[in-house]
Amino acid sequence: DQQVKQNSPSLSVQEGRISILNCDYTNSMFDYFLWYKKYPAEGPTFLISISSIKDKNEDGRFTVFLNKSAKHLSLHIVPSQPGDSAVYFCAAIPTGTASKLTFGTGTRLQVTL
Amino acid sequence: EAGVAQSPRYKIIEKRQSVAFWCNPISGHATLYWYQQILGQGPKLLIQFQNNGVVDDSQLPKDRFSAERLKGVDSTLKIQPAKLEDSAVYLCASSHRDFTGYTFGSGTRLTVV
Fold it and tell me: What mean pLDDT is reported for chain B?
């Protein structure tokens, strides 16, 4: 039972354009969401997060949007840069567990010149 | 601040052999996690320690996997005997008690042949 889904396994975007990565979840108990970025042969690194009491969080070029009624979140990268090419994982934490992450399957982003 | 250290980086073993992975978390991090990431999937939590006690091992295949965190610092994860489907990257992560500073190591890539 995949509780966190990333339906696009890959995405290709031109440098300077916007990258939009999507994530859907099924568990209503999730109340904190995170995005991780992973380069080959490295562990995932934290990118940005959002609490369920918010619908938007920004950090520089990265913005995460949360639509609780649709159980959907998205990561926007503007403008996209070649160094953003990596696999992006969406993750969620259920209420009360404090730190147990449930990950999606990942989306490979390629930013082309 | 030093990151989460894992060793070895790569390991190739034959099925039915045993293997052990080591993790040294960030100093002061009370919580330590082992995740399994199979190719094409997101990381899946195997076991979570709080200091030297197990918080969650519900997804650990206990017939072949074992883990310990002696003295509440570093940890080892063992597989005995290994199966072909155990081929994956094994990621260790650590965090403060309340989730802050959640950091992954670079992982150990296990190939079972």
Answer: 92
CA-CA distance, B80 to B29, in Å (whole number)? 28
Closest partner residue to B106 among A6, A41, A104, by Cβ? A41
A99 — pLDDT class (breaks 50, 70, 90): low
| Contact in structure between B105 and B3 (CB atoms under 8 Å) | yes
- Interface contact A48, partner B, CB < 8 A: no
* pLDDT band for position A98 (cuts 50, 70, 90): low
Q: For residue A105, give the nearest of B40, B56, B104 by CB distance.
A: B40
Q: Which residue of B has its CA nearest to A96?
A: B98
Name the closest residue on chain B to residue A5, using Cα atoms: B42
**DSSP annotation of B18:** -
The nearest CA of chain A is from the CA of B22 a distance in Å of 15
Cβ distance A111 to A85 under 8 Å?
Answer: yes
Looking at the DSSP assignment, which residues form a beta bridge with residue A91? A34, A103
What is the number of residues in chain B? 113
**Alpha-carbon gap, residue A2 to A25, rounded angstroms:** 8
Cβ(B87)–Cβ(B112) under 8 Å?
yes
Q: Tell me the average pLDDT across B83-105.
A: 87
Interface contact B95-A46, CB threshold 8 A = no
Instruction: Give the type of residue at A91.
Output: A
**One-letter identity of residue B46:** L
